[in-house]
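Holo model, nicotinamide-adenine-dinucleotide. Inputs:
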Amino acid sequence: MQPVIETSPLTGETVKELTPPSLEDIHDIVLKARASSESWAQTPIEVRTDALKSLRHVMIDRLDEIIDVLRRSTGKVDMESLTSDVFATISMIDYYEKNAAEILAVRSAKASAALIGNSFFVERSPLGLVLVISPWNFPLQLAMVPAITALTAGNAVVLKPSEVTLSVGELIQDLINESEYPADLLKVVSGGPDVGEALINEKPDKIFFTGSVATGKKIMSAAAENLIPLELELGGKDPMIVFHDANIHRAVHGALYGAFSNAGQTCVSVERLYVHEKIYEPFLEKLVKEARRIKLGSGKSGDIGPIIDPRQKDIIESHINDALEKGAKATLPIERRDSFFSPVILRDADHTMKVMVEETFGPVLPVMMFRTEEEAVGLANDSEYGLNASVWSRDIEKARRVASRLVTGNCAINNVIINISNPHTPFGGEKKSGFGRYHGPEGLYSFCRTKTIMINRGVLKKEINWFPYTRAGYIAVKNLMKILHGKNAIRDGAKKVLKILKGK
Ligand code: NAD
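Output:
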């Protein structure tokens, strides 16, 4: 396996070097995790949620240290680490701690009229071993949330964190070790793509991947070899639509936060801004004026930090240059100092430009004018991606109507980004933004096998549809079908008869 090096985005110095485990060692780690999954699957849910609680306490106790590690590894501003990485993770832990028992409980289900006399139950059980592969942009949250969800559902987890933020992977292992989880249940295996590939070859029972579309395709094709189910949380090109009746002050500040927080390295960043023609000029003027106040920084000072993965800088620059060549205009001086980019606002953008169709993943906000609701919906949907979106208007009915027409996994009205942090609601993408959902009840279900059990008390000698088939049986089934599913009068009549039969 190739050695990997984590470098500081602030100084370029080596933060950590690591030689990943050999193929044999990887095999051994997976075997041990699998072995521990068997007893964990039998562990009562209350014990699993107690482990979550212990993890929450460990994280709160070690909060300052977590922020220090995130700062060294990513160069981020502390406020970003605190809110988007740590707070988001702890809220999710808290949610599952309180709700997992109910979500995972066996449920009884109704039976259709034709199945009267049978009762139905839906049972969830763990999958076994889950492989989580995570990126560098929110290296704590995007690794820990799927991992703790899978653990809570009763699985063992092998986590392959990003090689760009090795120290965060190490920290996660440490936090888990200090909590009340059995040894070997969650194992962090750090390394580059070759380590990810080796782990997929170990045939986990599910792969949960967060990262780029290009890697998502490779992982899907590797998973197909062994028909391993997978969930892909991929990139985004999120549109923000501002109607003329929006609260302009709020929309301007929302756009700046949406586009520039975490230096635009957020899968749900605002990457395209569409502004109604009536307010286009005054909106831009205010946007630019407010953008001038944003300060570059890291740790305890400033608003937006550096570009974390050095490979991203070329992509950002190429998108800016391509847009300028095709007619977009820069509204602020374009300044780059080492890994820091000052916020870039490009006016008069259009869909011939890379910056409007490909994921930029940097502090760049292209702005385009629209005239009608129809046009805004068309522009927003004219994308290969569909992760998040936002619609801004005081007319909530209109905004709601537009939100429903957008092909996206998530949409906020009069807000940005924070909508995906509600632990109660599912999150995931459409189109090239991936598939599958996590967070909320769906999150736990996606790491479970779902089994439906039907119980018949076994009293009747036989069922009407069993052998031998008879003409009388055929006519009886046909009449039953007519009664149950025919025109209203008959169906209503049948409902009454059924009610009488059920004694209601
Ligand atoms: P990436 O695809 O380069 O890497 C992600 C992970 O995959 C890393 O751990 C990497 O080592 C691993 N990997 C790479 N090649 C592999 C292979 N062949 N087999 C197995 N593993 C392999 O992504 P990144 O640059 O770390 O992250 C940025 C991307 O992630 C952006 O596109 C962003 O939009 C996306 N993202 C999506 C979400 C979401 O929830 N939808 C959230 C955050 C980031």
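Residues 78-104 form the longest helix (27 residues). Residues 133-137, 142, 160, 162-163, 192-193, 196-197, 210-212, 215, 218-219, 233-236, 267, 309, 359, 361, 387, 429, 433-434 surround nicotinamide-adenine-dinucleotide (CB under 6 Å).
Archived with the compound record.
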